[in-house]
Design goal:
The structure is a homodimer.
Chain A: E1 17-21, H1 35-49, E2 53-58, E3 67-70, H2 85-101, E4 107-110, H3 117-120, E5 127-130, H4 140-146, E6 151-154, E7 167-171, E8 190-194, H5 203-213, E9 217-220, H6 231-247, E10 253-257, H7 261-269, E11 271-276, H8 286-293, E12 298-301, H9 306-309, E13 316-319, H10 322-329, H11 337-347, H12 350-364
Helix pairs in contact in A: 1-12, 5-10, 8-11
Chain lengths: 378, 378
């Protein structure tokens, strides 16, 4: 439970006492799915490296160099016996804000959407929340209208559009583990698709685009789960069965199944381009940054964060229609793979992300207590 | 938003400033379903009658003589456009505890299971939570283990069994609206079943018991919803289709559909007895108290709260097997309908319930501030 310096001793100088509050669904870091958990892990370890005193609230099977307060024994997606998820939100909020009220942190950085807002209002320590999902959901505006002062961070500027009145303090782009994603200077001949099989992600369109330009398409994805109980799962299964499965038999289309972290560099790096013909307001799109880190440019539909992550004509091509995206696939030799890798290093590395959050935290701290931060406004 | 006396003015003497925090699913009071909401309504209005300063946090379509802080515009079960229910828990917690932190209440009485616990720890005002549901759910013990000091009230002693270590401050039995439930001194010839059609409630057993003793059975229930998406709804529909529907054609069985408040007195009061052959840990069982208020004794299986609500040999018969319950139906002339009505008045009236909660609240208040309460421990 930590030494005395955790208690009631505001940080001075360069380091801060930072709580990272993660969702309880996946281990930190996750082994497969879990984009939010992956980003929380990269941020936490980078902040520890920089000398901050970081406390991570996460499932007990997580791994971190930070002080670790377990919220559940086992991440919820790994525990079939789990009860109502409300129980675990409640435990996480209790553990984090009980300690915040004791003055153990300079700042609480939450990754639980709006769930921290009621507790955050009740303690002196400021909370800042990174919103990791799409924000055009029914009812969300009414939640934010009730908590107008809660500080929030977007993962792209475009993500903010449905909630213009929220108390936005920064956009901090997500990071990917650039050092572990190997740069492939040559690339290969195929187009790559990596993502869930759901209409938003555009696999159907990717296959048609690849067929139009006569290029092979390699598809890395998990098949939707069959026989599960949510309407979303059933819709995804129907989409796979009726729309996608027949198209996977088209010439040049190769379904490689799910790729883990170890295979991801090769899958992305040996591609000619990542094909990303999404049709939803993507808040960030980690796979675009991963592809760039491997040196592979991105051909994407202009939705959500795409124009912020991809630089049109430098690290990829952005279009609107399937025809425009097909045409873009014929112009890939105009793009430099080195520029893709460099963009990932300069914009989406853990170090750059941590610096963005460091500035955001300092902007919320009392300048009298934290003189070192007085100059660094986000 | 109330007058100045709401702010930072602890109550003295006999009245208290009480927050009632209701779930957002149904109007207060509900028009049909919603046992918790019905009890919250009766309690709120009775406390107002007694001169307490009551603030009710509930959906905007609720009706109350208390100060009303709307949490959602329309109760969630009445609004098909509703988003994620987490949003509305968050709004409710924010509205209630922001005001609690300002000192607007002497006590917060919550009806949101464990959801208030993290906020409750962060304010000086004590919170007491009535637990309205069954407590043998997976994971619930781990939640209570993290919040050992949160004061909780049971609606029956038996309800406490799965959580013996919780900070129980009282058992307060639920009330029914005794004055509006008409006393039928004569009763009638049929056995009554009133409840959802789900295996726990024992409609199958009720039909077999009625057939065994050759008495008519009138069944008041809504048919399960067909084609909805939760596993529970689908299981209930299958149970209805395969088990119950054929049995409803048995001689003497009459399905009367859903009964509203207006018809309930006649349906229950004109019965010879209420048949309640449940097989689950019923935490209270409002229909038993409603039946007694109408003068109708109860024949029930010994589960959960049954031995606390029904006095064996006075207001009903309690048994274990279907055979015992069938035999009990032949001995109903030994029970006095006047005793049933009297038991409802003496044990399950809103006034008795409000007195129980009044004592519980005072037991949690600082005795130096609330001298009038120093003698009344629950």
């Amino acid at each position: 439970m930590g030494s005395e310096r955790y208690l009631n001793q505001p940080a001075h100088g360069d380091y801060m006492r930072i709580a990272q509050v993660a969702p309880p669904f996946e281990q930190i870091p996750p082994t497969q799915y879990g984009g939010t958990e992956r980003v929380v892990s990269l941020l936490t370890e980078e902040l520890v490296q920089r000398g901050h005193e970081v406390t991570l609230f996460a499932s007990g099977d997580s791994t971190t160099d930070a002080r670790h307060i377990p919220t559940v024994d086992t991440a919820l997606w790994r525990d079939p016996e789990v009860g109502n998820e409300l129980m675990y939100w409640t435990i996480t909020l209790g553990e984090a804000y009980r300690r915040a009220a004791r003055g153990e942190f300079d700042i609480v950085h939450a990754h639980l959407d709006f769930l921290t807002f009621p507790c955050a209002e009740l303690v002196d320590t400021p909370t800042v929340t990174t919103l990791h999902g799409r924000l055009d959901l029914p009812g969300l505006q009414s939640v934010f209208a009730r908590f107008p002062r809660q500080a929030v961070i977007s993962i792209s500027d475009s993500q903010r559009a449905p909630l213009p009145a929220a108390n936005w303090v920064a956009t901090v782009y997500n990071a990917v583990n650039v050092p572990s994603l190997r740069y492939h200077p040559q690339g290969g001949a195929y187009l790559a698709f990596l993502g869930r099989i759901t209409p938003d992600k555009g696999l159907e369109q990717a296959i048609r685009i690849a067929r139009t330009v006569g290029m092979p398409l390699h598809v890395a994805a998990r098949k939707p789960l069959r026989g599960t109980d949510t309407p979303q799962d059933r819709a995804d299964w129907d989409y796979y069965r009726t729309v996608i499965r027949p198209l996977l038999r088209e010439p040049g289309v190769r379904f490689v199944g799910e790729v883990g972290d170890a295979e991801k560099s090769d899958f992305l790096g040996k591609a000619r381009a990542l094909l990303f013909p999404i049709d939803w307001p993507e808040p960030f799109g980690l796979v675009m940054a991963e592809s760039l880190a491997c040196g592979t440019p991105v051909v994407a539909r202009r939705r959500g964060s795409v124009p912020e992550v991809v630089e049109h004509g430098v690290t990829g091509w952005i279009g609107e229609t399937d025809e425009e995206l097909a045409h873009a696939c014929t112009r890939l030799d105009l793009l430099d793979r080195g520029a893709c890798r460099a963009a990932a290093e300069q914009r989406f590395s853990p170090s750059v992300m941590a610096s963005g959050y460091d500035r955001a935290y300092r902007s919320l701290l009392d300048p009298d207590v934290h003189r070192s931060s007085a100059l660094s406004r986000v």
